[in-house]
Amino acid sequence: MGRRKPPQKAGAKRRSRGGIPTLRRAGTPPPRVATRPGAPTPALGAAAADLSARQGSSPRSRFPVSASFGVVEYERERAQMVLDLRRMGIRDERVVAAMARVPRERFVRGEDQDVAYGDHALGIAEGQTISQPFVVARMTELLEVGPDHHVLEVGTGSGYQAAVLAELARDVVSVERHAPLAERARALLAELGYVNVRVIAADASAGYPPDAPYDRILVTAASPGISPELVRQLAPGGRIVAPVGDEEMQHLVVRHPDGRETRHGAVKFVPLRGRAGFHY
What we know:
- This protein starts with about 30 loop residues before the first helix and ends in a 13-residue tail after the last strand.
- The strands form two sheets. A seven-stranded mixed beta sheet has the order 5-4-3-6-7-8-9. Strands 1-2 form a two-stranded antiparallel sheet.
- The protein is an alpha/beta fold.
- It has two domains: about 30-130, no CATH class; about 135-265, Vaccinia Virus protein VP39 (Rossmann fold, 3-Layer(aba) Sandwich), CATH 3.40.50.
- Residues about 5-65 have low confidence and may be disordered.
- The protein has helices at about 30-35, 45-55, 70-85, 95-100, 135-145, 160-170, 180-190, 230; strands at about 120-125, 130, 150-155, 170-175, 195-200, 215-220, 235-245, 250-255, 260-265.
């Protein structure tokens, strides 16, 4: 597939961003996290609420750890995340397996590494976020990525979503408006062995016409609608998944190959900036 599997190692202090949908699994984050735009909401269904009530505590207390996590603790946290994703209704085993392979702790800030696998969004550089695991899984599941697919990601952020897509697709083109985020994600993805991802610093809202057409397009920031520019870059039979709405609340929208659009739950992401987004 043009890539090698990334090693699972902990430690690097990387920042990331990402969309911030609203329904995350459980593992309520510390107060500083809960107030961020990606904080969980009940909008995406009862599964998250059930899990939140069942766990009740911060991910910090899920396993006994010392001041800093080690490889074993991260592996245990990742395994728990996978169990939680299944309980919350993620059914695509390829998506679950992909997320079990990606070391999420490498994509968050150093001070957030011990809560990397809690189901909440976390802040990264440039005022952006890394989406909670459930939303990453749900969007990826809705995208229906195949092993031969050429995928465009609109908004790289931390690079975590790109890594998950790279586990499933033939190759991924990820476009990020903020050059520092693009540089950081590019370096980290290369370090982790993702040779089938290209990160490009550009106006992500406009997609990336030079590499079109794409079999799948995933938008990781809130937009007022699915842009005609992105539709023009879609291959026949292609599919787009995007959070669509205003800057305060959106719904996950799937554009199907026949042009139909369907909604799949309320979310809250940071706004997409650019000529095809909200504004510059």
